UniProtKB/TrEMBL annotation:
Catalytic reaction annotation: 3-methyl-2-oxobutanoate + acetyl-CoA + H2O = (2S)-2-isopropylmalate + CoA + H(+)
The protein's role, per its UniProt record: Catalyzes the condensation of the acetyl group of acetyl-CoA with 3-methyl-2-oxobutanoate (2-ketoisovalerate) to form 3-carboxy-3-hydroxy-4-methylpentanoate (2-isopropylmalate).
Pathway as given in its UniProt record: Amino-acid biosynthesis; L-leucine biosynthesis; L-leucine from 3-methyl-2-oxobutanoate: step 1/4
InterPro entries for this protein: 2-isopropylmalate_synth_dimer, AIPM/Hcit_synth_CS, Aldolase_TIM, IPM_Synthase, LeuA-like_post-cat, LeuA_allosteric_dom_sf, LeuA_N_DRE-TIM, PYR_CT
A molecular function GO annotation: 2-isopropylmalate synthase activity
Family assignment from sequence similarity: Belongs to the alpha-IPM synthase/homocitrate synthase family. LeuA type 2 subfamily.
Record keyword Magnesium present: yes
Protein name per its UniProtKB record: 2-isopropylmalate synthase
Amino acid sequence: MPAHRYRPYEAIDLPDRTWPERRITQAPRWFSTDLRDGNQSLIDPMSPARKREMFDLLVRMGYKEIEVGFPASGQTDFDFVRQIIEEDAIPEDVTITVLTQAREEIIERTLESLVGAPRATVHLYNATAPLFRDVVFRAGKEEIKRIAVDGTRLVMAYAEKLLGDETVFGYQYSPEMFTETELDFALEVCGAVMDLWQPEEGREIVYALPATVERSTPSTYADRIEWMSRNLPRREYVCLSAHPHNDRGTAVAAAELAVMAGINRIEGCLFGQGERTGNVDLVTLGMNLFSQGVDPQIDFSRIDEVRRSVERLTQMEVHPRHPYAGDLVYTAFSGSHQDAIKKGFEALEARAAAQGTPVNQTEWGVPYLPIDPRDVGRSYEAVIRVNSQSGKGGVAYVLRNDHHLDVPRRMQIEFSRTVQQYTDLRGGEATPEDIWFLFSDTYLERYDNPWGRVTVLGYSTATAADGTCRLTLEARVDGESVVLSGTGSGPAEAAAEALSSLARVTVLQTTGHPIDDGMRPTTAVYAECLVDGEELWGAGIDGHPTQAYVKAVVSAVNRRLGQRSVDPAVIVPATR
Ligand SMILES: CC(=O)SCCNC(=O)CCNC(=O)[C@H](O)C(C)(C)COP(=O)(O)OP(=O)(O)OC[C@H]1O[C@@H](n2cnc3c(N)ncnc32)[C@H](O)[C@@H]1OP(=O)(O)O
Ligand SMILES: CC(C)C(=O)C(=O)O
Ligand SMILES: [Mg+2]
C-alpha cells in the first residue's frame, strides 16, 4: 500500500487541555441537517413533498433547529422553503436555517426564499483550508477572508432589504474544512465575520466548525474546539456548533468529545445520512445520552417508525447493526449472551418485585443490552434468536417468553441438544415456531401427532390415610384400552408404578408451575425419570394439575419406548 502518499494529521499544541476531565450532563442543542447535507448526498434528492414529511418528522421528534435546504440550488429547495413559510408549518419554537455560498446572486436568491418567515437563519460558508485556497479558489488568505466578510455583508444587506423587521433573523458562518485550516487563520476569519455581525445579548452568532472530511482522531477535533472556544472573542454570544463527518468512522466520538470541549450545538442527520460516509448520526448521539441517564430532549420512543420513515424518504437503508435502531441490535444468537440476558431479565423482574416498581421504571441492568429495547418501542421477542451458536439459555428464553414455560435447568440442557441437532442439520435459525414444534414433538402428546405407546385417556386418584396416592389410569397402550394402577408418594410416583409393566420407572424429580398466559388455567409439569436405566425428562401440560403430573411421567416413558414421529432434521412446522 502506498502509505507514503498520505501525510499524518498534525497534533494541536494544547497541553493544558481541560476537556478530558469534563462530563456530559445535559443534551447539547441539536441542529438537523437532514434536509440539506443529508439531502445533497442522496442519489435521488427529496422532492418538496418528501422534504415536508422529513421536516414534520424532525419537528415531531423535538428538533428545534433545522437546516431546511440550499434554496439557491434549484426550484425544489426554493419551493420547499416557500411552502413551509407560506403554509405556516414552522412551529413557534422551531428555527429554520438555509445554506448559501458567498456569491451575491446566490445570497440574493437565498434571502428571497425567506420572505415572510417568522424566524430564519442564513448559513454562509466558504472553505478556508490551504488545499481549497490553492485548488478551488486559487486565492491567498486575505482573499479567502474577504469572501467571508463580503458574503456576510451581503447577507446582512439582503436580509435588511428583503426581510426587514418581519423576520427574527439569525446568522451562521462556517469556515468549511475547519479541521484542515490553520487554527489562527480560522479564528481570524471568524473574528472578521464577527466584527460585522456584532453579536451581543439577544443577537447570537453561530459558527459551525466542520470536520468537512474527517481526517483525525476525535481527540484532535476536541483540542481544536477547546482552542477556538477559549480564543473566540465575545464567547458568551457565540453558539459553537460541531459539524462532524464520518470519514474515519469516528464522527460520534468526535461529536461527544466536542461537547466536552465546550461545543454548544451538534449538527448531524438521522442515522448518519450525509456526504460520503455521512454526517454524524443524531440518533446514536441522542441515544448515547439517554443510555447515560441524560435526557436527549428528542423522542426516540418509536425508533422503528423513525427508521422506516427515514428509509422511505431518503431511499437509503439503515444497517441491521446500526446502533439502537438496526434490526439485530437487541438480538443475541450466541449461547453465553443468551444465558446472561435471560438471567438478567429474571434478576430485573425480581428486583422490580422486591422494590414494588414496575419493570419499566426499574433501573436497567441486563447483560449485553445497553438499554431496554422497550424504551425505544421494541419488544423482547427478538432479543433472543436461536441458531447453531445458541445454548440452553436461549432456548429456555424462547419457551418462557413465547409459551410461559419455565423449563428446569437440567431439562433445558437436554432439550437444547435437540434444538442444536436441528440447527446443525438445517442451518440457519430455529424460529420460536420451530422451537415450539420441537418441544411439543419431543415431550407433549398432541392430538394431531400422537407418539409413543401410551396415550392417557383419563385417571382418578385417591389419597390414603398415610398420604400415599393411589392412581387409576385409563390409557391406550399399543392401541389397546387398558386400566393401570399404582401407588406412590404423589401422582407422578403412582404413575411410575402404574406403568411398571411397560418399563422400570423411577421419578427422580418433578417440578411444575401454573401457565399464566391469560387463557384458561393450565399447569405445566416437568418430570425427570429413570426409565429402564436411561435418564429422561418428560413434560405434561393440562388443565388439571394432577393429570399434568401423570402426563409428564407418561411423556418420559413414551420417549424411552416410543419413536419420535418425525425426524427433527426434516420437520417443517405447520406454521411456516
Ligand atoms: C461542504 C458542503 O456541504 S458545502 C454545501 C454544498 N452543497 C451544494 O453544493 C448543493 C447546492 N449547490 C448547487 O446547487 C450549486 O453548486 C450552486 C447552485 C450553489 C452553484 O452552482 P454553479 O454556479 O454552477 O457553481 P458550482 O457549483 O460549480 O460552484 C463552483 C464555483 O463556486 C465557487 N465556490 C464554491 N464554494 C463557494 C463558496 N462557499 N462561496 C463562494 N464561492 C464558492 C467555486 O470557487 C467555483 O467558482 P469558479 O466557477 O469561479 O471556479
Ligand atoms: C457547509 C458546511 C458546514 C458543511 O456541510 C461541511 O463543511 O461539511
Ligand atoms: Mg457537511
